[in-house]
Task: structure prediction
Amino acid sequence: MIKFDTAGFRSEFQLDIVNLENQGLRKVGRWETNVGIQWKPGYRIPGVDDEKSLRDKHFLVLISLTDPYGMLKESASMTFGNDRYEGFAIDIIHEMSKILGFNYTFEVQADNAYGSLNKTTGQWNGMLGKIIAGTADLAITDLTITAERQNAVDFTSPFMNLGISVLYRKPTSAPPSLLSFLGPFSKDVWVHLLAAYIVVSMLLFVIGKLCPVEWTNPYPCIKEPEVLETPFTVMDTPFFVIGALLKSPTGFAPAGISTRALAIAWWFFTLIIGSTYVANLAAALSTKSVMWPFKVAEELAYQQKIKYGAKKGGSTLSFFKDSSHEPYGIMYNYMMDHADEVLMEKNEEGVWKVQQQNYAYIMESTSIEYIKQRKCNVTQVGGLLDAKGYGVAMKKDASYRTDLSGAILKLKENGIINELQHKWWKQKRGGDECEISYREEIVEELKFLAKCSSKKIIKRRKTSLETIKSNSTDS
Result:
């Protein structure tokens, strides 16, 4: 039956797609108004779709709502299906589907569990449990490739390389002390300066005693005095030497050639030392010294003031469990003994705890980099504890593993992975929140000078949202 819509065009019909071959016309698919093109299984367009071996494949892809890998899309209009989600992992699947031609449907892991092995039952939970059970085809998020997980499922080539590091709040400036004035010089310099002062004082005292010119008549009215005096006494000579060092007049000057030569050498020395001290003091006052409670992760194992933890059941915790390094073993025992207090269900909980308490959260470096761009009061402490990668998980011995890995390698070679990382780390959702654009500041200053205005708006550095909320709550 032929149907027409209100505009007079045909509706609800289908077209056969045929291909001209040596043997004649061959039907390779059909097109329907409500479905679109449906190719026959195994058909490829020569020269165009040779690489799309997964054309007729439909994947159920598990994701987690973890920034920036998977997030609910911010939209004023109602969205449905895959359009509800956006993020780094979402874009990677989309780019892979463009290369391989497969279809996909996203499903959110409700409990946000990636997958860990229950030693008692031998069963996997979370995303990997669904992959093994066959209820899902793929899983992509900040899912770390580990040896234990590779025994249960297959992974593609890593789409991102990273390591474990420590997230901690930015250290505060060191408070001034009573001995801050000694900061411009090191301890060795002060010791040598004191030794030089003592030696010069002794030499000047001895030379002043031996030089006849330094002995003068204290009573000018008496032409032939019986007693002569010298200003270079045990009390006055050190005062003369320290006066030259502090640029203070002492009231007398050497008269003999030998004493003057020594005094000139000392004055030149004090000129260099004084200028260097003032320059170093100005630099020390302009730059605030920072107090780091710890500089490497291993130091956390041998202290009691800072609490530390990781994500519960994650690969980071497994790293400490399997490590043979003594400090890491101590850290793992501490985290398990205080699991209710230091192990987090989500990374967001760990970040909040870092901002509000004296707590260090151990997590992947890529996540730390993402958080640093948006939380201005936290930073990464120390280097990487290991080297690993994120991959797309699938069922063991899946036939399409090679195709998916090849697609990821192409995305890397084409620079698309780097573009997506820059997009979601530094552009979208508040990226570069804590970065200072000096170019924009210079432009604003030039505009202000051009206006010749007598009023100026003060711009302050942005702080993180959690810090603002905390301050308003406390008040």
